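User: Hi! I'm working on a homework problem where we have to compare a predicted structure to a textbook description. Could you give me the structure for the chain below?
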Amino acid sequence: MKTLIEKSSKIQMEPEATLGENPANGGWSVLECYDHLNRYSAYYIPEIKKSIDRAKESNSTTYKTGLLGNYSAKQMLPKEGKVKNKMNTFKSKNPSITTTALDKSVLEHFIYDQKILRKLLKQAGKVDLGKTKVKTTFPLISFKLGDILRFHINHELRHMLQIERTLNAVKATEVTA
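Assistant: Happy to help. Predicted structure tokens:
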């Protein structure tokens, strides 16, 4: 989390035009990537908080992942610094379809959400990560709190790689232009 905050704070220093430019390959801009992450955080952070607030305190030190939750978290995780499996996003979470103008405020929002998530991670250490359930964005499906936290963080790591690649690609075309 701290690294994501530090990287995002550094990216905030880039010109807004650079952050808003789509790479030549047609992918999302840096701002669109952050907007996408913010859309997921807008759902998951309140759900995680509700689950932690409802949970009883626990001294449990063991955690066993759920089958589907573990699979989903692993699918999100980049491997060897690369995203091996491409995934489509929901229309409601796709910034290139549902938004128009974005600005650096999406980075501020992301950093703010990261600070909240850090606090929630500390609180999660006081509850049973296996018995505490969190609703997913899929209707009627809940994952264990531990799996949701892994899934959400892996999703952010996945898109941070995309953000770094996009920023490098856009800067490279600015130099050659």
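For your comparison, note the following. Residues 121 and 149 are 8 Å apart (CA to CA). The beta strands are 133-135, 142-144. Good luck with the assignment!
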